[in-house]
């Protein structure tokens, strides 16, 4: 069986709702980027690299929360843990408006990330409950493509909000947007986990589920590949404002450059959704990881020998980020493919590993920023090589293999 679509919601609305939920996480990161200097000034943050903690603390909460919401959603279903997480996200965003100190703000950002964790885990689980194989990859790609409207628009929106109000206006917008998505979820999101497929929260049952995830060679290898890919992206995101504004002097045009690359990522996800059934998840994801790695190494080689001009930097970054967009949904689908019986736990374990691991590694990459693009280029190159090694491990040394039939996938 390749899909089990709940009749209460159409496929199109499901894709749109999943995209809106995923956008909450992207919004909490990308809309903050133009505000980092203003927040640094408000809380007397002297070092530019220290401003990155506003992003890092959110993502740490996000990663920690993922390990909790998977077992909860496998026990109590998808709807109630998801709605609880949305409420935590909105409350923390609203409370951040009144944060009197940097420490409290960072704590609220951690709490906001904790609530957002339910979205990542449960949105993926909802799709896996109803689809598998290339059908799942197609739905995830379409959702990812729609979600990419947020990274395209968010930096510009953040810049606009800063023009008409203080940095707190950004948190007002986040809380309001989350409330709207929460109401939509409450009214339209069906419960996709049947009562007879729910798993016990007994410690032994949870350990058994986790063991199924980490001992599956193919699933774990692809999950680890996703970790390294995300680490490279996070290393860039935390220092994006410093690169675009500090190195290339784009100033108010920073959101435009950021949006152009994000738009290409969305386009690559759309292309993937159209080609995945024809060529297969493995061929597309393996090709994307290979090109990602080669382009990153070329960028590193250039950055090590010259000051890379903006006209060369942007196309190289566009190729790398497009490949990331192409690979992201496919790697996630491949890691989840063998684990449909424990989709919630699997999603949370991989989410925890990918987010916390990616934040730690990517945060380290971001903290190495030294006024050049070399640390980011080196991070992309190393992470690409490690992701490729993980893929080779999962596929027993072979690339571009043929996907199993739908009956084998479920």
Query: What percentage of residues falls in helices of 4 or more residues?
Result: over 70%
How widely separated are the two ends?
7 Å
Given the helix and strand composition, which structural class is it?
mainly alpha
Global morphology: globular
Q: How many strand segments?
A: 0
Q: Strand count, sense and closure of the main sheet?
A: none
Structural features:
disordered N terminus; mainly alpha; 410 residues; Growth Hormone, Chain: A; 16 helices; disordered C terminus
Commentary on this structure:
The structure is a single chain. The chain is mostly helical and 410 residues long. The chain is globular, with a radius of gyration of 20 Å. The chain has a single domain (11-397), classed as MFS general substrate transporter like domains (Growth Hormone, Chain: A), CATH 1.20.1250. It is built from 16 helices and no strands. The model is unreliable at 1-7 and 405-410 (pLDDT under 50).
